[in-house]
Amino acid sequence: MPRPTPKSVVEILRGLDLEASDEQCARLAAYLELLEKWNRKMNLVGPARWPEVLKRLVVDSIHLAAFLKDLDLPADPVTLDLGAGAGLPGIPLRMFWQAGQYWLVEVRQKRCGFMRTALGRLELPATHVFMGRAEDSPAHLEAEGYGHCADLILSKAFMPWRKLLDFAVPLLSAEGVLVILSNDPAPRDLPESWRLLGTVAYPVMGKNHHFWALSQSK
To answer: Are 88 and 58 contacting, i.e. CB atoms less than 8 angstroms apart?
Structure first.
C-alpha cells in the first residue's frame, strides 16, 4: 500500500464530495501515515489501511467541523473530547475547526503517547492531551486556568448515551453543549432535563452516521 500523500488524500475526499485545503490534506496525510504505522503495533483503530481510515473515520471529523460551526458556541470555547483514543474525531477535526482550547481526554497511556506524537508533528493550535479520567477533567481545566467546566463536550462511543447525560452534567457549563457521535438517530425520549438543539445525518460507506447536539433545559 503506497503511503498517504496530500494528492492521494484529496483524490479520496473529492470522491466523497468533500473539500480540504492543501494544508489540511498535508496534515491529514501525515496523521494517516503515523496512525497506520502505530496501528501495526497497538491496534489503535479497526481499519488497517489508511484509505479505509480516511473513508470510515476521518470523514466524521470533516462533517463534524461543519456541524460545530453552525452551533451557538462561545467565540473561544473550551472543549473536552471524551475517550479520545487514537485522536478520532479530535485530531482531524482540529485541522478543520480550530476554535478555542481543545482537550483530548484519554486514560490509556499508550494512546496518549500516540496523540502527543501526532500533535507534535502536526502543530495544531490550542490542542492538548489530558491523560486521566474524564471525571477529573473539571479539576484539570481549573488548574490550567480555563474555569471549572467545558463549553462543549464531544463523545463518540465513550459510554451509552443515557449514562452519558448524567455523567456530563458536572463537566459541562450551564450554557454548554454536548455533541454525541452515533450510528443511530437522536432518541425521542430524552429526559426532561435535556433538550435537542440539532441533528445531522450523512452517509459513510453505505450507512448513516449521526450527530446530536444537546443542552441542559433551563
So the answer is: yes
